Amino acid sequence: MSVSNPSYRVRVGGWLKNRFSTDQRFLFLSMICGAICGVVAVSFHLCIEYAFHRTMVFADYLKDHSLVFLFPLVPALGGLIVGLASISFAKGSTGGGVPQIKVAYYQRFGVMPFFQGFWRYILCVISMGTGASLGREAPSMHICATVASSIGQWLGLAKKQIHLLVPIGMAAGLAGAFNTPIAAITYVFEELFEGSAKRGFGTLLIAVVIAAVVERGILGTEPMFQLSIRQFSSEPWMFICVPLGIFAGLIGHAFVIGMLKTRYFFRYKSKIPQWIRPVIGGFGIGILGICVYIGFGTHGVLSTGHLTLGAVLQEKYVWYVLLILLIGKFFGSILCYGTDCCGGIFAPSLFIGGVLGALLGNGIVPFCADSENVVSGCALLGMGALFAAVIRCPITSILIIFEMTRSYSIILPLMVGNMLAYFIACKLSPVSLDDRSLIQDGVSLKTHFAYQGSKEWQNLPVSTIATYEPVTLIETMLPVNAVLSVKEMPHHSYPIVNEHGDLRGIVLHRELVDWSKDLIQKALFEYVREQKVVVVYPNDSIRSVAMKMVSNEVEQVPVVGDISSSKLIGLVTLHDIARQQNAVEESV
To answer: What is the pTM of this model?
Structure first.
């Protein structure tokens, strides 16, 4: 975040430092972040709703003038704007945003560029406002986390404190988007912290409560979804939570796999340019959405679908319309996610789950002595179950349904269905969607020293500091040719590998130069045939690798796949270890 007047920032920081303790300053800063993030989240919500409202007004205009076939061009245009922005001035601002938060939290001490959040705000309004079948909640968290991080950077805080501001902004963003402060806290703990020390809980709580107060002050105190009845009595129909949990687990797994495979295809298999991908997603969802809108009078397949989901909970749709909505939202959200449209998967998960539950509810109504509110009750159970299966935050999946509807009486069947769906989804695919998307992009989080704390960095895997693209030499090369090949990029040493990337040896630069002077040139593998190379493995601790290097009197060691594999992964030097130690000391 750029600062036009650094002296003013220094004066503000000095004034706070002279009058308040560290804890008091951070508490005050958390309150400020909560208030600002609440305003940002609410404005984000209102902008998307207004943009989508204008889009549907335009759709009605096209329908009245027999030009409805042109409607898919609207979300396609939104996709074009997103695509062009993503390759120019708004790189890293597409998608949902939660994976980007985790990367910043684990690998950059929470330092997030302000304009990445700013452009995500703009592009998400354009994307979802023109009909992209995704949700605003994950982008809201990313935007607010960026705001909190930028405030910390503007004030010149230490990276340890900026690191703590990211979950505060993230939770405040979710509280402001969903009006669910308690669920916002549990989500951050389940999704971001994942078992690390639960620091900052008090300040996080303050931030989300203030954000929720701002949200309710602007939008009112009513819950997101209105039910015609507040309480459900215990009835036999609630046993539907068992088959519903099973269905939700299976469908949630299919939903995640569909999104991942579509994303992988467009990003890494197809030759479609990056800026074209959101256009394809926008055009596809435009065709799907307008067909459902014309045929069945509902626009739930488009954008967030919150209004349509509210109508589902009011039991306003017959079973075949619910089926169409389920299919349309399922494939529409997969397409939008896979083509890098802007938005998250919270809203689609809740929508699909609610419609699934309502469908099953319609199926059991004829067998219920008292069928009142059975469909809406089943829809609530479905929302929680599919959320648990897709988002993989089971506690949050229970609390978020309660806070959005304030219906507490079905908490027990909700817990049963959610846990069942969660365990089925985890059994079928142990890694969550956000983490698998990062894995697709070659990003690893849990190996970074920030994950366990700066004091424990020596116990972390050596893979966190290895160089993954070392300069290598092919074993069949002659020394004189090898010297020429590394002339422009000389290093201390070079791993020697075969054509499959398997390690054959390692040669120092000075040794390579000496070999190149031999009158009779031999292939490199002849020189290292009897060499015993000291190797390490990715999960070896940094401490043990350093001790091995010292005891063997070597300055670098190759990192290979495992004991049974000689596949070269990277290279670690004593300089890497020293540099890592200095980086930790300077950054905290």
So the answer is: 0.72
